[in-house]
Amino acid sequence: MTYPLLRVEDLTIGFPYGTVVHGVSFDVHPGETMALVGESGCGKSITAFALMRLLPPGARIQGGHVIFDGVDLAAAAPHALRDIRGRSLSLILQEPMTSLNPVLPIGMQIAEVMRRHEGIGKAAARRRSVELLELVGVTDADRRYDDFPHHFSGGMRQRVMIAMAVACKPRLLIADEPTTALDVTIQAQVLELLDDLRRQLGMAVLLITHDLGVVAQWADRVTVMYAGRVVEQAPVRPFFATPQHPYARGLLDASVGHDGEAHYTTRRLNEIPGSIASAAGEAGCPFAPRCPDRIAACRRAPPVLTALGPDHNVACIVAAGTDHVAVDR
Amino acid sequence: MSLLTVENLHTRYVSRGRTVTAVDGVSLTVAGGETVGLVGESGCGKSTLGKTILRLVDPAEGSIRIAGEEIATLRQAALAPFRRRMQMVFQDPYGSLNPRQTVATLLETPLKVHGIGGRAERRAQVLDMLARVGLPGDAAERYPHEFSGGQRQRIGIARALVLKPQLVICDEPVSALDLSIQAQILNLLVGLKRDLGLSYLFISHDLSVVRYFADRVMVMYLGRIVESADHVTLWRNPQHPYSRALLSAVPVADPTRARAPMTMRGELGSAPTTGCRFRSRCPVAIDRCSVEDPVLRDVGAQHRVACHRPG
């Protein structure tokens, strides 16, 4: 087995008012696409920001490790981080309009990354930027180098962001909901582009999304988060064939796209009752208040991630068959 | 007679001296008890079409008839009785509720505006509607910020239904909601339709949701309907290359299914001035497409498509 490119270990993130990510662990292997899935408020985006050490004001890594290429980013000094960010570890965000500088030509923004990290000259950086724009499918790249972000559509801006992110051939690209703001046909084009680049450049992708269709079609493995915790992780095939955590099962059942033939006249959708807020202030499993399988022991302590098989883990005492252990403890 | 009949509707916006035709000759009907889905990507004019039907935006030309009565040319003051019969549910349950009003006030205002009932009767109707959308009775005295996104959408639905309309135009009603909440709201809309005999015009960019929710589906591209069919036919046998691209682009939550190659390139731009407006992105366009603008024609029972090379 290859040593992981990124190992997140027991990562805990908090704000002054409380902890929002509780001991999250997962690996990303070289060259793979790992999806981090969950609904709004589950902590997936803040986890991504923590990996880059770009947490919003007030948020703090309270514990755990982020081992990337042998370096613990959670403890690294700022100058060491600056050398890694944008070079071997890159990030693209959901909203390409607000993540580009509106008053600089887009080509210059791409060139800046390479000039900073690779110390190349202006002319060389321009040439490489034009090549990158061509690589991500911007036509007439030489002329468009001098255009500003507002000259581009949403899909094209996301391509520019991707060009910037892959400029220094990163080993890991973190993509936080990269296509959520885009139309479905443009989403397909952008995901195709990301996947081509992953193969061409041999990079790994950590794909953060709420869309199970995107996970099934584009990821190798999946980690599902709920209320700041990992609830299940598995390769995509076993995950979609036999999801083990009741939340993961519920999500698949609730999704209209899962059962292709479903129509309102013939089938009612399965609901997950309540909302993510239902667990506020509870001691046990955060999903217990909404869970169809809960037993009394679920309310005692948050379940630990337990191995069900090779590379398939679940945090549920019922699914893992460890409910008696929890009772003994 | 259809509940709603729209014929050759045009809506134009003037922006910096330029005229943009957002809705460009749309015709459609919604029968009593029917759900018609309207799908298309951002900028195709689907929301403008919904707003024009409600006369929140004025049409440039064309006809809008509610149960046979023309409303496209009525003055705003004369529209009130029709507004009672058509209501709208918006996408954003955060932005569409006044944060300074209690839920009771939010729901009572439409009743007051239309002069319905006395104070006690209105109160009873508000509480009845809250119960129908699955909110607790004590919700009435609370403010929108005290509710989750899904509950706020329930409030938005209650406000639309409190006037007992016949037609509800839903503009992306579940797009801002998490998956587990989407199912709750869709089930609620299905139940309300059955209980209250509603018709829906359901506007969405999400094909999976439309597939589940609509009886008939219309696909819109740059201001025009390019294909319309019943929900089974559209998914089994889409005829317009744009419909096919749209359907194949939806990622299926099944990793054993191969990804469909994306045949359509480019993005929604402005319409070419001659011929078919889709031709610049179309994988099967021929010379004729740049000369002759295709019109909607029948290709099967209740199945219409605007394309020179369907299938």
TrEMBL record, chain A:
CDD domains: ABC_NikE_OppD_transporters. Keywords: ATP-binding, Cell membrane, Membrane, Nucleotide-binding, Transport. InterPro entries: AAA+_ATPase (IPR003593), ABC_Ni/Peptide_Import (IPR050388), ABC_transporter-like_ATP-bd (IPR003439), ABC_transporter-like_CS (IPR017871), Oligopep_ABC_C (IPR013563), P-loop_NTPase (IPR027417). GO terms for biological process: peptide transport; transmembrane transport. It is found in: Cell inner membrane. SUPFAM superfamilies: P-loop containing nucleoside triphosphate hydrolases. One of its GO terms (cellular component) is plasma membrane. It is a peripheral membrane protein. SMART domains: AAA. Belongs to the ABC transporter superfamily. This is Dipeptide ABC transporter ATP-binding protein DppD. The lineage of its organism: Bacteria, Pseudomonadati, Pseudomonadota, Alphaproteobacteria, Acetobacterales.
TrEMBL record, chain B:
Keywords: ATP-binding, Nucleotide-binding, Transport. Pfam families: ABC_tran, oligo_HPY. Coiled coil: none annotated. InterPro entries: AAA+_ATPase (IPR003593), ABC_transp_ATP-bind (IPR050319), ABC_transporter-like_ATP-bd (IPR003439), ABC_transporter-like_CS (IPR017871), Oligopep_ABC_C (IPR013563), P-loop_NTPase (IPR027417). Residues 4-247 form the ABC transporter domain. Belongs to the ABC transporter superfamily. This is ABC transporter ATP-binding protein. It comes from Neoroseomonas lacus.
